Amino acid sequence: MRTPRPRAKRRVTALPLLVAAALAAAALPAATPAAGAAGAAAPPAAGPGTDHAVDDPFASDRTSWFRQDRFGMFIHFGAYSNLEGEYTRPDGTVCRDAEWIKRQCDIPTDAYEKQAATFDPADFDAEAVVGAAKDAGMRYIVITSKHHDGYAMWPTKVNSWNLRDHSAFDKRRDIMAELKTAAKKAGIKLGFYYSIWDWHDPDFADPATFPRYEKRMYAQLEELVRKYDPALLWFDGEWETDRPNNPWTAQDGERLETYLRGLDPDLVVNNRVGKRRVTDGDYGTPEQEIPGAPVDGQLWESCMTLNGHWGYARYDENWKSGASLVRNLLSTAARSGNYLLNVGPDARGRIPAPSVQRLGEMGDWLRTAGQGEAVYGAGFGGLVEQPGWGTVSRKGDKLYAAVTAWPAAGGSLPLKARTGIDVTAARVLGSDQEVAVAKTADGFDLTPAGAATNDAATVIELTVDPGPTAAPGSGTGLRQEVFDNPALSGSPKVTRTDPAVNHSWKYTGSPAADIPADGFGIRWTGTVEPRRTETYTLTTVSDDNVRVWLDGELVIDNWTPHNVTVDKAEVALKAGTRHAIKVEYAEQTGDAHMKLLWSSPGQPQQIIPRHQLYPN
After folding, report:
1. How far apart are CA 278 and CA 282, in angstroms?
2. Is 594 helix (H, G, I), strand (E, B) or coil?
3. Do 125 and 349 form a contact (C-beta atoms < 8 A)?
4. What is the pLDDT of residue 17?
5. For residue 76, what are the CA distances in angstroms to 63, 192, 390, 391?
6. Which phi-psi region, left, alpha or beta, contains residue 278 (left: φ > 0; alpha: ψ -120 to 50)?
7. Percent of the chain with pLDDT over 70
8. What is the rounded CA–CA span in Å between residue 343 and residue 210?
9. Does residue 21 surpass a pLDDT of 90?
10. DSSP summary character for residue 270
11. Which CA distances in Å does 148 have to 382, 457, 561?
12. What 8-state DSSP symbol labels residue 361?
C-alpha cells in the first residue's frame, strides 16, 4: 500500500491502440516461469458491438453483499513481514519500513531473497485471524496474495517465488486454503489483494517483455479464482512509476477486467484493476481518508491502517484508539462507503495484540444495544444534512444519529432536513431515556433526557416518514439513435429502445457491430418520471462529449472532448410527471463511457432505472 496518486493520463492516440491490439492478438505469448506455468486462457475477444458494462453496482444483486456488509479486514502479510520493519545494511546502519522495505531501503534482490528463505510464519492461525475479524464485527477479509515484491503467499505453480517453495514454512500448509476454510465456516467472505506492479519479475518493466509477465499474472489470477473462489479481488500497483518502470495501461486494465468477468461473473473488483478511475472496476478505493460525501458515480471503500503501517513494523506503537476507529466506521457508512481496516501479522504470522484489542472494542460497540444497525446495510443519511455533532446513516424508514458530541443537560441536537420528512419516534439505543423531538424552521431539535451511553458514539434511532413516494413506473427505457459520426449528423444507423444509459464501451467496444470503436455519436430521447417530488442531482460519467437537456433546458454541457469526467446538475422533478429528457454523447477516439445516474434526498444514487424512463 502507501500508494502515490496516479499522474493524469493524456488521451490515448492511435499508436497505443495499435500496441494494445497487437498484445491482444498475441494472446499473451508463452512464458518461461521457474516452475511451469498453469495454462491461462486468453482474454475474451472484444471489438465493435461490445459493451463492457456489467450492471449497476449501486443496485445489482452481484454487489449486494458488499453494500450491506460495510466493514472488512485488510491483511498485509508477505515476505516483508519476516523483517518486521527493519533492515540492517552491510555497513551496520538500520533502515525502517514495512511492506515497501525492499524498495525504500534499496535491499539487493539476492539479499531480499535470502531473508525470504528464512520466512516461517508457523504460528499463523486462520481460525484465530477469522475469529478476530468476527469479534470485530467484520463481514469480509481481504489478504495480500502478492504484494509489490512479487512474492506469492499461496503455492502457485507459476513460479518458485512463493511461500511454499521459497521459505522455511511447512510445505504441506497453504494459509490461503486454511483462511478460506475458516472464513467459510464463520460466514465471512474472503477476497485477495494482488499487486500488478512487480519488483521481482524480470519481464515486468520492459514493454517489450511485459506480455510474458502478463501471461504469468493471468495464470496466477486464474489459480486464485479457481482454487479459492474469492468473492472479491483487490488490485494495486497500477500507477505510473519507476524503480521499476510500470508499463500498465488502461487498455491492459480493460483486458484484465474482461478476463476476470469471464472467470467469475460474480466477482467484485476494485478500480485499481485499471487506472483508478470512476469507470474502472466496481468501486473506488480512497486510501487513509474518508470522503466528505458519497462518491459520485461509484461505490467506494476506504482502506486504513490501525497504526502508521500496512505491514508489520515492530517499532510502530502509534495505535488509533477504539473510539476513533468506531467513529471512522460510522462516518464511512453514513456516506455509503465501506471501511477496510488493516492488520499486519508479524514474522511468525501473529496479529499484534494491540490490533486484536482495538478490533474487539469495535465489535463490542457494534454488538451493544443494536448499534450495528447504524452500519450494516445502512447508507447515506440523505434525508438530513450531516450534523456537526456526529453522523447520520439511513436504513429504510430509520435514521441512525450517532452522536459523538453529546449535549449538556437540557441541550438539544439540531438536525437540518433536506426534504419534507416527519420524525414519528425517537429513542436512544441501549437506554430508556426519552428523546424530545421539536420541529424547527429547517428541521428538528432532538433533546435527550439523559446522558450519553457510550464514549465512542451514542446512537439515537429516529423513525421517519420520508413523505410520498410513488409506486415504480412502467417505463421501458429511452429511444436511442446511434450515428456513425461524433457530430450526430445524417440518419442514425441504429434506432432502438435502450433500457438505461449505462455503457462502458472502453477502447474496443461500440454500440453496434457495424459501428467502429472510434468516431460515433448517440442521442437518447424520451421522458423521465421520478417517484418523489424533490431536487435531484443528475450525474453523467462520460468520455468524450456529453450534453443533457431536461424539459428543454440544457442542464449539463460538456461538449469539449475530455477524458473520464463526472458532470452534475441540480434539477427539480415532480412525482407523477414525465419530464422530457434528451442526452447526447459523442465518442471521438480512445476510451468510451456514458452513464446517467440520479440521486435526491430520498433516492440513493443509482443508474436511472428503465421503469422510470419512457421512449418518445
Report:
1. 9
2. strand
3. yes
4. 30
5. 24, 11, 31, 30
6. alpha
7. 93
8. 32
9. no
10. B
11. 39, 38, 35
12. H
Name the grid cell of 119: 520466512
Q: What is the CATH number of domain 64-374?
A: 3.20.20.80
Please choose, from the candidates 586, 590, 597, the residue with its C-alpha nearest in 3D space to the C-alpha of residue 559.
Answer: 586
Q: At residue 16, does pLDDT exceed 70?
A: no
The helix or strand, by DSSP H or E, that contains position 112, with its residue range, turns out to be helix 109-116
- Cell numbers at 176, concatenated: 490461503
Listed in sequence order, the residues at least 6 apart from 583 whose beta carbon sits closer than 8 Å to its beta carbon are: 478, 501, 522, 523, 524, 525, 540, 546, 547, 548, 549, 594, 596
| pLDDT tens for each residue of 452-497 | 999 999 999 999 999 999 999 999 999 999 999 999 999 999 999 9
What pLDDT does residue 45 have?
63
Residues 344, 120: contact at Cβ < 8 Å?
A: no
Q: What are the CA-CA distances from residue 118 to residues 169, 348, 571 (Å)?
A: 8, 11, 63
Measured between alpha carbons, how far is 65 from 73 in angstroms, rounded to an integer? 15
User: Model confidence at 5, in pLDDT bands (50, 70, 90)?
Assistant: very low
The arithmetic mean of pLDDT across residues 296-320, rounded, is 98
Distance CA 206, CA 178 (A): 36
> 197-250, pLDDT tens digit by residue?
999 999 999 999 999 999 999 999 999 999 999 999 999 999 999 999 999 999
Taking a C-beta distance cutoff of 8 angstroms, is the pair 581, 525 a contact?
yes
Can you identify the CATH homologous superfamily of domain 381-465?
Golgi alpha-mannosidase II (2.60.40.1180)
- Assess contact for 121 and 143: CB atoms under 8 A: no
Amino acid at 376: Y
In the predicted structure, residue 504 carries a pLDDT above the cut 90: yes
The residue type at 507: Y
Question: What span, in angstroms and rounded, lies between the C-alpha atoms of 406 and 448?
Answer: 9
Q: What is the rounded distance in angstroms from the CA atom of residue 146 to the CA atom of residue 80?
A: 11
- Fold held by 478-615: Toxin - Anthrax Protective Antigen; domain 1 (3.90.182)
Q: Which helix (H) or strand (E) holds 554?
A: strand 553-558
Mean of pLDDT values over 92-108? 98
Terminal Cα distance for the chain, rounded: 50
Question: Quick one: DSSP state of residue 616?
Answer: -
Q: Kind of pairing, strands 520-528 and 478-483?
A: antiparallel
Per-residue pLDDT band at 46 (split at 50, 70, 90):
confident
Q: Report how far apart, in Å, the C-alpha atoms of 367 and of each of 138, 417, 566 are.
A: 12, 29, 38
Burial (CB count <10 Å: 0-12, 13-18, 19+), residue 513: exposed
How many residues comprise the chain? 616
The per-residue pLDDT for range 309-355, each reduced to its tens digit, is 999 999 999 999 999 999 999 999 999 999 999 999 999 999 999 99
Domain definitions of the chain by residue range: 64-374, 381-465, 478-615
DSSP letter assigned to residue 279: T
